[in-house]
Amino acid sequence: MRWTEFDLDGGLVAIDRPIADVCDIALIDLDGVAYRGHEPVEDAARGIGYLREQGASTIFITNNASRLPQDVAAQLSSLDIPTRADEVLTAAQACARLLGTVVEPGSNILVIGAEGLRVAVSEAGYRVVDSADDAPAAVAQGFGPELGWKDLAEAAYAIASGVPHVASNLDLSLPTARGFAPGNGSLVRAVQSATGVVPLSAGKPSPAMYDMAVKAVGARRPLVIGDRLDTDLAGARSGGYLGLLVLTGVSTGREAILAPPELRPHLIVGTLAELAGPHPAPQLGANGWWELGASAARVIDGVLEVSGAAPGKEVELIRACASAAWDASDHGIDVDPASVPDIRPTR
User: Fold this and answer.
1) 9, 21, 31, 342: which one is catalytic?
2) On the chain, which terminus has fewer CB atoms closer than 10 Å, C or N?
3) Is 171 a catalytic residue?
């Protein structure tokens, strides 16, 4: 499924009406987008509510494999984002589906992870086991804060015997209330280092979960909303989906400006409240300036130059800088990262 209204192989997309009006389903990340740890993200409930008012379905797509969908739904509902369990798709559920491509139904599966993954694998019809000595047909690995060396060792023993290794996701870090901590990808790398086996992965940046959600409802105009270039937006690009970066989480405006083609968003907003407005894209003007409102940017001899930054218009400047930097890069000009400012939207 690919959009026909927009060029999804190019740069930023121009939308002259509210962004929420263009999609029939929004595939929304959780951490950094809908909430931050146990706290709400500013304007998330407002923006998601507007999407729903305009008739769009909402599915929350998360690389978190440790939690049950009903628990995620309950947390969202407590943050003024009413959500049902069937509106949540976790990497654990996607991992369980991916197992079906490498093992027979009803097989023994060594699950290295928290309750969310164990339940998903069991509900998919497999028998969950805890040891490499239980003749598993595959190893399913997902994040769990209680995991230790013994768990990773069991995974390594089983994989070394020749069974497939399927990971829920490969995120190296995850956001917590205290900052960023090692994610499932870091634990997967430990097992991979011990075995030399590269695992299959169900989570983003694979577009598999997006595909599952879109197919389930028969959507034709999906919008991916995320805060991470290397997972959410990379998945959007690789799957041919319209991708929106919201600057309330991991990836910054500066990182978007410097992003390679496979990680670039099609839309950039400061908060989800901007879903209620249009998304003007910069236009190339005189002397190589990419202009949007009072903001402008260009690249001269590999140096990004900016002009017209105004308080409250930081997102416009980020878009202008992104267009200038991406255009230069696509024409073989390396942009000096030192010349790219760290532009943060005013909250």
Assistant:
1) 31
2) C
3) no
